[in-house]
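Kindly go through the following sequence and its backbone structure tokens. Advise at your convenience whether the structure tokens fit the sequence:

___
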Amino acid sequence: MRRNRAVESNAANVGRAGACAGPEAGFSAVTAIVILVILAVLGAAIVTITGTRSTSAALDVLGSKAYQSARAGIEWGAFEILDPEKLANNPPAGPYTAQYVCPGTSTSFALAGGLSGFTVTVQCSTNPPYTEFGNVVTIYKLVATSCNIPDGGACPNNTTTAFNYVERQMTAVMETCRLSANGPSC
């Protein structure tokens, strides 16, 4: 009776590492490597997405602060135009004849508090006064530009390449009215 040597040799190798000698040889190692590569790619994707979301959230906060800074600039400019008498510095007696004027053609200042780190530049322009129903009316245009990386203390910064540079611009148009050229307000 003849014995099959291949059967004997496989039977002797059962339970030993590397015992498979057929098409299954190395299948486990290849499968493990593929699974490890897939897990590494998934891990890298999760890290990238998390980092991108954190950066995006930080830029959203900066954008909101830039908007509020521009709004503060508009409110400051409107106060400067609409309160020429500056009641804090003058007694409340009239008649008030101080003229409404732009607070300069361009004024820049840094903000404090929750908006620290932001600078706002307020530009003001005016049209010549005109008469409407006997009253003298003047129209003003305010443009407030705020940013977190000013150029020479003013916004906008057209030279920066920083990824976290944020800028917002707001425009407001307002008018003032006097009963006469140097008279009290309407």
Notes: Helices lie at 5-12, 27-82. The two ends are 126 Å apart (CA to CA). The chain has a mean pLDDT of 80. The longest helix spans residues 27-82.
